[in-house]
Amino acid sequence: MKKRCFLFLALFSLLLLSSNSSALAGKLPKRLKEIVEVVEQRYAPDKRTAVFDLEIKKKRKTITLNGITSVPEAKYELIDQLHKLNKKYKIVDNFRLLPDSMLGDKVYGVVNLSVANIRRKVSFASEMMTQALLGTPVKILQEDEWYRIQTPDDYISWVNSSSVYPMNKAQFNSWNAADKIVVTSHYGFTYEEPDVNSQTVSDLVSGCILKYEGDSGNFYKVSYPDGRIAYLSQNEGMLKTKWQNQFNYNADNIIKTSKTFMGIPYLWGGTSAKGIDCSGFVKITMFLNGIILPRDASQMAKVGEKLVVDSVFSNLKPGDLLFFGRKATSEQSERVIHVGIYIGNRKFIHSQGFVHISSFNPEDKEFDEYNLNRFLGANRILGHLNSPGITTIQTNPFYQLQ
Prior knowledge:
CATH class of the largest domain: Alpha Beta
Strand order of the largest sheet: 6-5-9-8-7-4-10
Keywords: Hydrolase, Protease, Signal, Thiol protease
Signal peptide: 1-25
Number of strands: 27
Helix content: 10-25%
CATH architecture of the largest domain: Alpha-Beta Complex
CATH topology of the largest domain: endopeptidase fold (from Nostoc punctiforme)
Protein name: Cytochrome c
CATH superfamily of the largest domain: endopeptidase domain like (from Nostoc punctiforme)
Radius of gyration: 23 Å
Oligomer: single chain
Largest sheet: 7 strands, antiparallel
Number of domains: 4
Structural class: alpha+beta
Mean pLDDT: 93
Number of helices: 9
Low-confidence stretches: 1-26
């Protein structure tokens, strides 16, 4: 299984490199290729968080730009640099900005079911890249039967249109401004009546967010992004204002939350209690403590404070993130492919097969020689909130009025 995961990651990287190079296919002047490469690297170095799909055609003194990008600055600088390259060139600009104008004013949305599976391509058979929970605000960039969306961690990929309720700015702001209920139970349901014996409306997982409509006995009356009304047991949720006020952004709470996922099976792309991958586990654990991190392990490794770790891990603190993968050699660079959370005493919790605790100490029953041998380093998140790549649910722009 470990070999299979590594092979899959290697193939995925090869595909990304192929998609980058396809933009420069054909007999283009060397300087023109260099301009495109510099602009792409500056504004869209990570295809998971920025769209830069460009095809360039040159015929005599005409350069035609075809494609799409989610980064306006990339388009503007590219055209400016091309004009400077040779003022005699005629630029035909078919390089469209996202959100696509075909969407009209419905360029916002909110996830409308418990867990939305977000895929690499417009197909249920395509690789699941990540998930988003009910109530997650998103930006809609493009429609091709499915929606191409961007989530609060800036991840961009495709989701079936039934998973997201599209909104204009006024509707989106109304949703963001409304009182909410956050689901705190890992598994649950809403009901058509304030009675657990009534018809279910949908399932729920921890981290789902619904609009608060009032109280009814021991139930919250709630509504979905699409307007459905339902009832949630007050034992399974909490007013969002109260939920946010309990955040202390400390290691004890993070570790306590992480341990509630013990035994939940590994699922590639999973970020919920239904199934969870390594970075998805870290992501949902932090989110339930109000912290929004980048989606993947390799992205998480670039945020926070990079630590110099000694041989006995004495300078690590509970709550630090640990990274694992391929160590750098003279022939190849380091590659992060796994992440866990340090819990103290040379132990860490992570999702590998299922969520469990491992140890770097050979004397412990949880000793994990495999991960010790591929340990790469650690980053400190706590104490660095609202630094680049690390936001909170109070500060992330997706949760704010637009």
